[in-house]
Amino acid sequence: MEGFTPVSGLAGGLLIGVAVALLLLLNGRIAGISGIVAGVLGGFRGGVGGWQAAFALGLLIGALGYGVLAGGVPVEVPASVPVMVIAGLLVGFGARLGSGCTSGHGVCGLARLSVRSVAATAVFMGTAFATVFIVRHVL
What we know:
Layout: H1 6-27, H2 33-40, H3 50-70, H4 81-97, H5 102-111, H6 115-138
């Protein structure tokens, strides 16, 4: 189990949980990243809310800050730029099709005991399991 880091995983999970809970309690909003980014990009009527832009900017600054403190990018992706672009577009399409992303359904929806989010998360995870199996053992 090379690279197993339970302490950092627990700390990251706690930070995500606290951030999601605070956004819901203080703003009455769900921390679904696809919805927040859609709002920033003008996908919602009424313009961009300041909280959406701040949330998205905080995600970028947090990732960049971690990269600086850790001394580089902690994850290497063995894929070409075109493959990454296609993958990103497919993820975006899936998030729109599923009316939310893994953070909205998997973190926030499950915590609220949403039946729709349980179904969506089961589909996300099942698809991920099948994809990893096919890529690693079939192709």
